[in-house]
């Protein structure tokens, strides 16, 4: 079953506060998009990469991809994203090839995600799960609060997982979930759409390197990880 990755990279990165969209912000001299591609290209099972980029940065995305993809494997397509993440995933879905059977959706913001994690998610789908997400146990205690800050509940930490990307799907499961999802609301979690559409989602072990870069602090953490040979880079 051929595997495609939809790499959503069309966000503006308001919380990062850079002068360019987040995918093009430098991390130890390379744009986040280039780092993200390194992880994806390291997984040989991926046959098709769809980069969903800001309309203003389609050419720049093509240059970055062209410098890193040798020959014709994987096939790379670049499409313009939408006004929110769900619209960008939908734009990516429309660029799937006829034979793409397994689809992974990945945030460029998780640009240090190692190839192993892609393989683990793909294996989960190949083993028969229509929707697979990587997750890690949470180390903080999590509280449910109301908008005044009053604690309503403290869920048992044992049953909680912090969920990452890439999230992997049988193509139909992802397409059906997006069709069922109203275009007026956005989603940061494709597996959540599958759940709402009545599908089952499975968790495989995530990876601390799949951390999400949201704020300038996260960029400092990612740079330190890249510099430390025990971890990334
Ligand atoms: N994303 C996208 N298209 C959008 C919005 C988000 O492709 N219209 C992507 C981002 O590029 C990112 C992922 O969705 O890889 C998760 O979004 P987030 O971390 O919130 O990134 P931004 O939306 O860029 O950041 P911010 O919310 O701070 O503006
Ligand atoms: Mg955002």
Description:
The mean pLDDT is 95. The chain has helices at 32-41, 58-68, 85-93, 115-126, 171-180, 190-196, 216-227, and strands at 3-8, 26-27, 30-31, 46-53, 75-80, 102-107, 131-137, 144-145, 151-153, 161-163, 167-170, 202-205. With 233 residues, the protein is an alpha/beta fold. Strands 1, 4, 5, 6, 7, 10, 11 and 12 form an 8-stranded mixed sheet that branches. A two-stranded antiparallel sheet has the order 2-3. Helix 1 crosses helix 2 and helix 5 (171-180) packs across helix 6 (190-196). Helix content is 30%, strand content 23%.
Average pLDDT, rounded to a whole number, is 95
Number of DSSP helical runs: 7
Helix fraction by DSSP (H/I, runs of at least 4): 25-40%
- Compute the CA-based radius of gyration: 17 Å
- Please write the string of helix (H) and strand (E) elements: EEEHEHEHEHEEEEEHHEH
- Each distinct ligand: cytidine-5'-triphosphate, magnesium ion
Q: Could you say which structural class the secondary elements and strand pairing correspond to?
A: alpha/beta
* Content of β-strand: 15-25%
Main sheet? Answer: 8 strands, mixed
Give the SSE layout:
Layout: E1 3-8, E2 26-27, E3 30-31, H1 32-41, E4 46-53, H2 58-68, E5 75-80, H3 85-93, E6 102-107, H4 115-126, E7 131-137, E8 144-145, E9 151-153, E10 161-163, E11 167-170, H5 171-180, H6 190-196, E12 202-205, H7 216-227
Parallel strand pairs: 1-4, 1-6, 4-5, 7-12
Antiparallel strand pairs: 2-3, 6-11, 7-10, 7-11, 8-9
The chain binds cytidine-5'-triphosphate and magnesium ion (MG).
């Amino acid at each position: 079953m051929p595997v495609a990755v939809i790499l959503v990279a069309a966000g503006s990165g308001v919380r990062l506060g850079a002068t360019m969209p987040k995918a093009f912000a430098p991390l130890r001299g390379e744009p986040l998009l280039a780092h993200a591609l390194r992880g994806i290209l390291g997984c040989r099972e991926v046959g098709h990469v769809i980069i969903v980029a800001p309309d203003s940065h389609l050419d720049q995305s093509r240059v970055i991809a062209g410098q890193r993809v040798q020959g014709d494997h994987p096939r790379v397509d670049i499409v313009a994203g939408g006004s929110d993440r769900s619209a960008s995933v939908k734009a990516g879905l429309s660029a799937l090839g006829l034979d793409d059977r397994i689809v992974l959706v990945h945030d460029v913001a998780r640009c240090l995600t190692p190839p192993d994690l892609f393989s683990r998610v793909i294996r989960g789908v190949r083993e028969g799960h229509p929707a697979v997400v990587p997750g890690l146990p949470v180390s903080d205690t999590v509280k449910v609060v109301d908008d005044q800050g009053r604690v309503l509940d403290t869920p048992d930490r044992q049953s909680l997982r912090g969920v990452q990307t890439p999230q992997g799907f049988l193509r139909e499961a992802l397409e059906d979930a997006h069709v069922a999802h109203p275009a007026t609301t956005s989603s940061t979690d494709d597996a959540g759409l599958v759940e709402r559409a009545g599908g089952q989602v499975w968790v495989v072990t995530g990876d601390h390197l799949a951390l999400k870069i949201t704020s300038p602090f996260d960029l400092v953490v990612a740079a330190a990880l890249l510099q430390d040979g025990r971890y990334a880079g």
